[in-house]
Here is the input.
Amino acid sequence: MSTNPKIIALDIELPDRESLPEDLQKLFAVCETKLGLIPNVLAAYSHEPEQLRTFSRFYNEIMFAKTGLEPLEREMIAVVVSSINHCYYCLTAHGQAVRQYSEDPILGEQMVMNYRAAGLSDRHIAMLDFAVKLTKDSSEIVENDRQQLRDAGFDEKQIWDIANVAAFYNMTNRVAAAVDMQPNCEYHSKNREPSAQ
Here is the structure.
């Protein structure tokens, strides 16, 4: 797999795709079919196959669960948490996903800069306020914070999902920052045109 431009700053040799175990070759083939690329985060994990399997499974469980939050809501949390943490990789990748799910070519950038200026619903503001507090001051979360989510219309399962998505991106942001992980260039140009209504 190409490491030019370099995916991570660490001098770790990433394996050729053909040398990966068969299940991981299939994972990368699915990514190419569905996304048109192999996300650099997966390429970066490929030097430790079991970590790649675990990361991929956990990501899919967090981001594509069939209950709880909608996919766009999960991506909105990813962007806002990554904005607080200044994670270039996740802001680029998940900003694109916000554009895709919302069919709005500027919403991702609005949320990167200031989600409160993005014209979001009160429900989504409450969700993102909680994710921000969890990111900045997790020890300060109290029952009143959870109650504010209930008052905004979230049920207990959705509150669980908000917490898990926010916590997951706090972890990935820190790994990406530590190794200077670079996003795929393709993310920058995707979903920039307004959808045809």
